[in-house]
Sequence to fold (443 residues):
Amino acid sequence: MIYSPKSISNAVQILQDDPDAQILSGGTDFMVEVNFGHRAPTSVLSLRAIKELCTWSQQDGVIRIGSALPYAQMETGPLAKLLPALAQAARTVGSPQIRAAGTLGGNLGTSSPAGDSLPVLYALDATIIIATATGERRMAVKDFMVGPKRNALSKGEIITAVELPASTGYQGYSKVGVRNAMVISIASACLVHNPIDRSVRLAMGTVGPTIIRASAAEKWLGEECDLASASSITPAICAEFGRRCGDESQPITDHRSTAEYRRHAVSVITSRLLERCAAS
Amino acid sequence: MSLENQSYTLRVNNKSLDVQDAWIGESLLYVLRERLGMPGAKGACEQGECGSCTVLLDGEAVCSCLVLAAAATDADIRTVESIGDGQTLSDVQQAFVESGAVQCGFCTPGLIVAVENLLTHNPRPTEMQVKEALSGNICRCTGYGRIFDAVSVAVARRTGVSQ
Ligand SMILES: Cc1cc2nc3c(=O)[nH]c(=O)nc-3n(C[C@H](O)[C@H](O)[C@H](O)COP(=O)(O)OP(=O)(O)OC[C@H]3O[C@@H](n4cnc5c(N)ncnc54)[C@H](O)[C@@H]3O)c2cc1C
Ligand code: FES
Ligand code: FES
Fold:
């Protein structure tokens, strides 16, 4: 059975009545599994017709992005101005065809350590909004992802939106892979500077079982420089920051790369992101 | 596990087409080719990597291999069969032929849809924009040079600018 409800409350009810129904958003992870026989749905709950999930809004400095908004709408336009790092991350996902379909709800649902939106959500301390049978719950993204391809979502729950703060300073995303288009990252990172609370937040992807915040490197940087502006960040500080981020990564060797290369790559991109921040 | 089947109607190239008693997990690519007799979209990787199955879904180019057909009943689906009238070629198709952008031809339908989609949204794309727009379409024969030439020819003719 295929369900295409038009409202979130109907969707949640469907999952109560038919607990086997599998949630489908853009299908770019879901359908690969179906096509290769790793997933054989007997019923599917499609989110496509729920307009509320396919929009975004902004209120009091908080941006709320519907879980089924495709990446294509984050790449350019007003949302890209509010969240430049998310726009950069979105532009690196797959190809135009993938970005026309793929969504944040799906990236979170899959919870791959290589998911390109995830370091951005971690660096911005995003809140995940989840519809449940009894209403709604909110969860910090760091509590959402619990391991490679594992998350804290329970059966019957639907991710409805992600809430993020609008940018107040430099923010950037960087990804290393074997080519530019259509590539799963070997290492990735997102850096967010907030001059108001004098912080730099740094999250790394593909170098651990979950996304990793470089908390010790962040703290060190805050002690080295006055982060009310980026002007006191010197090239030497950038290099040392990158080295410390690399120390905090927990990469593994797999078919895409070795642990050594991943650690090196993440050091290089984190130090480069800080250089870009300093030059901004 | 019992696999469920369902009958539904798709709107493809402005026609309502019935799909009878089909497994709900079938991709739009499969349904178009195997159930609706439209072999224009090609299947190679079935994992979104090659773009040879590109169709327009509500005006956006997507991989039909990653669309669950039974969940696309409310969508406006356009395939390569809607481009050109079957007798004469569209300007983009003509430009591909003239520029030698078609060798084995397997990637061509997906590229035609992707180029039509690009030029609808952006009639005067830069070279980078063309490369970006076609980055999800793999061609194993041409080395892409002639494909980019074909796009330039089509752009020049549509915008009336000589090359
Ligand atoms: C060719 C190709 C290239 C790719 N390249 C990249 C890349 O560069 N970077 C990257 O990060 N990813 C990439 N991906 C993976 C994929 O595109 C992303 O993970 C995307 O964000 C998935 O979103 P979707 O809407 O398509 O999810 P779907 O495939 O619809 O769903 C994925 C999973 O999440 C669950 N789910 C979806 N929405 C919800 C929700 N609202 N609530 C609860 N569960 C939900 C589904 O049940 C399913 O288990 C690529 C995929 C392909 C096929
Ligand atoms: S067959 Fe769909 S992208 Fe290759
Ligand atoms: S012409 Fe053969 S794959 Fe492109």
Remarks:
- The radius of gyration of chain B is 16 Å.
- Chain B has two domains: 6-82, 91-159.
- Chain B has a mean pLDDT of 95.
- The domain at 6-82 of chain B is CATH 3.10.20.30 (Ubiquitin-like (UB roll)).
